[in-house]
């Protein structure tokens, strides 16, 4: 709709301006070229409209490559100036880089960041010593949080690092991972299923070393869809996460694509649902957290800013409504942040009350753990 109103008026103005100019200077001799220019302009506009409202929908409908590019944005690799082998370059103390292998042959770049009380000691170690000591330290009783990031960028992106630091100060071990094909992670076939495979691999790696009741998951944005999916699959296998924190989540990818600002200009098309929404499922893209989490007993904390422009608060609320259907027996909390703080889609990490929210959720989840296994 907007593109019609943006495109049409200038064409009229230009045409009349052109006309006046040509009449005053060269008179009627250039009537022909004026007509030709108007026709060319018309063709250009029609071609653009055709590309935008016919070719783009068909491409989206038929091409998984296009859906994958836009949804995952894995080719956007900011920040470009950080050597991922050195977490210290992102301003992190007590960090170690290593790689986790998945069953299907992917290799995931991972950071393990020590809790604050160990960070200084950790930084004194040589690279070789780190691997052993970090492994030993992760069993020391401090809680662990796995951070599953949203689309684009790497585990070194600054809004992510800011959140790692919040957890580090609360004496959590932080584990930050890049899904296959992001950053320095390698592997075949980026898809919803393979992000789930990656999440499970990382979870299991730490699950072998840490008590369940201390192993938490944090998802942000697209990562909320990934973590809800793999936490649910793990629970089916009898492996429980202690708690799941969802920052700026959506209920399912179909609703998210419908609400996303960039797709608004296509909404008037009678074939919008058919081309843009139905095709997600054709390519195995559901990220149906509203269904996946119903199958779980995991304590859930949803965090959403009112001024989130990428994933509207509405979708976070729909997810909250869905998980509350599990009943009062299970923790399903939601906290919204007023628009006046401008946290938007990425900066809930700046909320001064966040550490307390996390602490309370941690305690409630750990206390709740025994009820879930009995
Ligand atoms: C994803 O995994 C599910 C369950 O394992 C399977 O049924 C489905 O076919 C897979 N989808 C794709 C696109 O591979």
From TrEMBL:
<feature type="domain" description="Serine aminopeptidase S33">
    <location>
        <begin position="144"/>
        <end position="260"/>
    </location>
</feature>
<keyword id="KW-0812">Transmembrane</keyword>
<dbReference type="GO" id="GO:0004622">
    <property type="term" value="F:phosphatidylcholine lysophospholipase activity"/>
</dbReference>
<dbReference type="GO" id="GO:0052651">
    <property type="term" value="P:monoacylglycerol catabolic process"/>
</dbReference>
<dbReference type="GO" id="GO:0005789">
    <property type="term" value="C:endoplasmic reticulum membrane"/>
</dbReference>
<keyword id="KW-0472">Membrane</keyword>
<dbReference type="InterPro" id="IPR029058">
    <property type="entry name" value="AB_hydrolase_fold"/>
</dbReference>
<protein>
    <recommendedName>
        <fullName>Serine aminopeptidase S33 domain-containing protein</fullName>
    </recommendedName>
</protein>
<feature type="transmembrane region" description="Helical">
    <location>
        <begin position="37"/>
        <end position="60"/>
    </location>
</feature>
<dbReference type="InterPro" id="IPR022742">
    <property type="entry name" value="Hydrolase_4"/>
</dbReference>
<keyword id="KW-1133">Transmembrane helix</keyword>
<dbReference type="Pfam" id="PF12146">
    <property type="entry name" value="Hydrolase_4"/>
</dbReference>
<dbReference type="GO" id="GO:0047372">
    <property type="term" value="F:monoacylglycerol lipase activity"/>
</dbReference>
<dbReference type="GO" id="GO:0006660">
    <property type="term" value="P:phosphatidylserine catabolic process"/>
</dbReference>
<feature type="compositionally biased region" description="Basic and acidic residues">
    <location>
        <begin position="10"/>
        <end position="23"/>
    </location>
</feature>
<feature type="region of interest" description="Disordered">
    <location>
        <begin position="1"/>
        <end position="29"/>
    </location>
</feature>
């Amino acid at each position: 709709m907007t593109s019609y109103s943006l495109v049409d008026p200038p064409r009229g103005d230009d045409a009349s301006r052109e006309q006046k100019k040509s009449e005053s200077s060269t008179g009627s001799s250039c009537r022909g070229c004026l007509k030709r220019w108007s026709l060319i302009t018309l063709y250009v506009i029609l071609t653009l409209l055709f590309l935008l409202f016919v070719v783009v929908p068909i491409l989206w409908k038929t091409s998984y490559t296009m859906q994958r590019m836009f949804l995952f944005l894995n080719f956007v690799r900011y920040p470009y100036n950080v050597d991922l082998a050195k977490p210290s370059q992102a301003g992190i103390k007590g960090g170690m880089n290593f790689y986790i292998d998945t069953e299907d042959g992917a290799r995931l770049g991972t950071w393990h960041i020590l809790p604050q009380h160990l960070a200084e000691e950790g930084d004194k170690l040589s690279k070789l010593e780190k691997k052993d000591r970090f492994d030993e330290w992760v069993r020391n009783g401090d809680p662990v949080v796995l951070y599953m990031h949203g689309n684009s960028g790497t585990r070194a992106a600054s809004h992510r690092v800011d959140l790692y630091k919040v957890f580090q100060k609360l004496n959590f071990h932080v584990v930050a991972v890049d899904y296959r094909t992001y950053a320095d992670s390698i592997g075949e076939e980026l898809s919803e299923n393979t992000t789930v495979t990656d999440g499970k691999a990382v979870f299991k790696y730490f699950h072998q070393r840490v008590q369940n009741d201390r192993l938490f998951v944090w998802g942000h944005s697209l990562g909320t869809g990934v973590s809800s999916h793999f936490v649910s699959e793990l629970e089916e296998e009898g492996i429980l996460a202690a708690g799941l924190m969802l920052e700026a989540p959506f209920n399912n990818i179909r609703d998210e694509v419908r609400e996303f600002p960039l797709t608004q200009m296509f909404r008037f098309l009678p074939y919008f649902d058919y081309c843009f929404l139905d095709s997600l499922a054709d390519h195995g893209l559901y990220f149906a957290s509203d269904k996946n989490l119903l199958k779980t007993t995991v304590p859930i904390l949803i965090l959403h800013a009112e001024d989130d422009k990428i994933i509207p608060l509405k979708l976070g609320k729909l997810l909250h409504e869905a998980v509350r259907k599990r009943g009062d027996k299970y923790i399903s909390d939601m906290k919204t942040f007023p628009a006046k703080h401008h946290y938007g889609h990425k900066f809930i990490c700046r909320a001064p009350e966040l550490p307390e929210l996390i602490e309370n959720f941690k305690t409630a989840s750990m206390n709740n753990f025994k009820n879930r296994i009995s």
